[in-house]
Design goal:
This protein is 36% helix and 24% strand. With 245 residues, the protein is an alpha/beta fold. The C terminus is likely disordered.
Length: 245
Amino acid sequence: MRISAVIPAAGKSLRFSSGGNSSHVTQRKQFRSLLSEPLIFTTLQLFLDSERIDTIVLVAQEDALNWLENQMEERHFEKEVRLAVGGERRQDSVRNGLDVVAPSSDVVVVHDAVRPFVEQRWIEETVRLCSDYDGAIVAVPVKDTLKQVSGGSVTSTIDRSEVWQAQTPQTFNVDVLFSAFDSAEEQGVEATDEAQLVEMNGGRLAIVEGSRRNIKITTQEDWEVAQAIYERKLIIVDRKSIEEN
């Protein structure tokens, strides 16, 4: 079974930059340096390290491709890493990436470029579950009380006992995801993640419990949290190194 990863990084960082869309590539959050490495390559490395992943596609806006190509030439990847042009919507970008890997892949793992704290066990488990399900996603149970609001007023409290917050990676059998994209296109449906498209197309999805550390960097506050997590990791690694020596 061949397994590929599609990493969408075509976002315009509208919520990250108070000034709107960044004109320069490196001002977009997915290409900014988190400590010493551009965020997209920090996330990419986790998939390069995975024994299950054969091919990886980075999906980016067209004006970022030259920058990415130059950055990739400076690095020596042991796996095939390819580029695809992003679309207007997330599902367009992921579909473009899927088109690149589909001819030689049975299963595809979709993961946000701006989630740099993915764990190998989530990749492993979501891939494994694709043998019994159409796909599997990482998610965490909702812990806060949820309110339904209309016109600025609370109308009801939502039972959170069966509510989970979706994250990535989200992993699917390739033919299932293709079918979901085709169905969405025919019906004019737009979704916020691939799992929603598969659900709407009748697919069965399994859940793998993730972590609240698996944050999606969307705002400046998220960036500060990510920096703090990384700095803490570096301290732990340094301590272990000292103890071992």
